[in-house]
Amino acid sequence: MQDHHHQPSGRLIVVEGTDGSGKSTAIELLGKWLAAQGYPVYHTAWNSSPLIKPFMRQAKKKRWLGPAAFSLLHASDFHDRLNRLILPRLQAGFIVLADRWVYTAWVRDHVRGLDLEWVKALYEDVPQPDLAIYFSTPPDIAVARLKHATRELKYYESGQDISGLHDPWSSFLWFQEQMRQSYLALTEQGFLQVFDATLPIREQQKILRSWLKPILEGVPLMPQFLGSSQDQANRESN
Length: 238
Prior knowledge:
Blueprint lengths: L10 E6 L6 H14 L4 E5 L7 H10 L4 H25 L3 E5 L2 H10 L4 H6 L9 E6 L2 H10 L11 H4 L4 H21 L4 E4 L4 H16 L15 H4 L3
Parallel strand pairs: 1-3, 1-4, 2-3, 4-5
């Protein structure tokens, strides 16, 4: 990835991981901690563009999407959020907390059989995170967490579009393992920093905050944002 935009004054923190890894809970807690100190915080999530998400939801429901269409729609969603919502805040000094970044596309689309270089080319003009964390969780633990939350798996979420398995949970377990292997490859290549997501939440937060502190050096506090950890304009689209 190359950053052709002018250098932002904010920071970009990314969390990645399979479904059920606990990354969303962790980044939400981090946002509250940052906001309590007076940092302006902006949350953004995968597949949340108010322009693209409605069509994406309908297309998934109708099972219209092959791997390439799936990939291109997610790229459109990403770039809409990047240009309208994320980059302006980075340039204004916000701490942007991203629940998934381009690595989600690299992993999912590659597992779906697309050429990885083709997928990367869709995101070649995207800024690199100041910190990108992979929440490592064994697939069986992730499945147990989702079942405990009484989640109903969706067709694409479970990977049934490529697994050929009729049982959603069996397909999900297979799909998660394929993605886990791809994520681990990215950690070995230095794109992501591995984090043990099986640790208790309190211990997780202690470690994550220690990772963040040196990255936050030089970012000015903005007391007017004290206690406001979420940007409602983005959350309203979820």
